[in-house]
Amino acid sequence: MIRISFDNSCFEISLVNHHLLPAPGFQRFADTKVKLKLVQSMANIARLLTKRAQDQFPNVVYPLQVITRLNSSCKYLTVHIPISNKSWEFIKTEVTGEKKNVAVITLNRPKALNALCNGLMKELSTALKAYGKDANISAIVLTGSEKAFAAGADIKEMAPNTYSQCIQGNFLNDWTEVARTQKPIIAAVNGYALGGGCELAMMCDIIYAGDKAKFGQPEIALGTIPGVGGTQRLTRVVGRSKAMEMCLTGNMINAQEAEKVGLVSKVIPPDQLLVEAVKLGEKIGTHSNLIVQLCKEAVNTAFETTLEEGLKYERRFNHATFSTIDCKEGVKAFIEKRPAKFINE
């Protein structure tokens, strides 16, 4: 049976073996020509569907190369076709790192200092969903230009908003895909990260900042308040007093002060910022993607519950890791004094 799914971010085509061969036969030939022929067949089907998609969606460019993956139990084969970055208007995307396992998303509205418009946020959400499904990606770096990470929301686009429109349209609800993404996201912040830009950086898991970066929540000067975490995430990170000062005055803080109050993990020269962020992603990628995601969820839980409940949650996740293949491999590799070979299961 061939199982096909499609959304704005990718095709996924799965070949389920028990409808093609008896399971024992497939297991016996999994490492021989049968497996290779199945992979080639799925790749051909993927290319055919890609051609049809191009005919139906001419404004989107799909690469013809495909990613094939056979799960460890040899029960199904998945062909994953990511959407190319040539379709983007407001962002750029690339995959980098020595093992090509770190995705870089660059906000790309230079004339507007990367102001966050709805179009940009939709593209960002689409890219994040695609990389979230890509088994080859271990971490994601989100960055902007040297002048601005993101100088805030697009004020001209927001100007016509009314209270009733905001309530009934659930304004800003779709801006939080960064916070919902399971894979670790590193913000590489140069220049201004103000308003929505600061909030976007705080949705990421780790913030590296160039030494000229500036952070702030200046919404108060526009007669409004932060709407995507400026009063909530900022308070949890820097404390009530500092968050009050920043939100009530609109004053900015520099990268050095941001590091001092815990908003930023590390301050780096601007020309080395992206390189260091990618290196961090590569370091994370040396570990099991599965365990990394469990660890990320456990850390985030610390901000959402009591200490007692958080410790219980952490302990249960710790227990759960011992049922994984990767934990067994990691322990065995440590005992045998060799690098672990994780398979993310």
UniProtKB/TrEMBL annotation:
Question: Is the keyword RNA-binding in the record?
Answer: no
Q: Which InterPro entries match?
A: ClpP/crotonase-like_dom_sf, Enoyl-CoA_hyd/isom_CS, Enoyl-CoA_hydra/iso, Enoyl-CoA_hydra_C
What molecular functions are annotated in GO for this chain?
A: enoyl-CoA hydratase activity
Keyword terms of this UniProt record? Fatty acid metabolism, Lipid metabolism, Lyase
Q: What class of enzyme is it?
A: lyase
Gene3D superfamilies (UniProt xref): 2-enoyl-CoA Hydratase, Chain A, domain 1, Lyase 2-enoyl-coa Hydratase, Chain A, domain 2
What's a GO biological-process term for it? fatty acid beta-oxidation
Q: Which Pfam families match?
A: ECH_1
Q: Which family does it belong to?
A: Belongs to the enoyl-CoA hydratase/isomerase family.
Instruction: Report what the protein is called.
Output: Probable enoyl-CoA hydratase, mitochondrial
Organism of this sequence:
Drosophila albomicans (Fruit fly)
Q: What is the lineage of its organism?
A: Eukaryota, Metazoa, Ecdysozoa, Arthropoda, Hexapoda
Q: Which gene encodes it?
A: LOC117566988
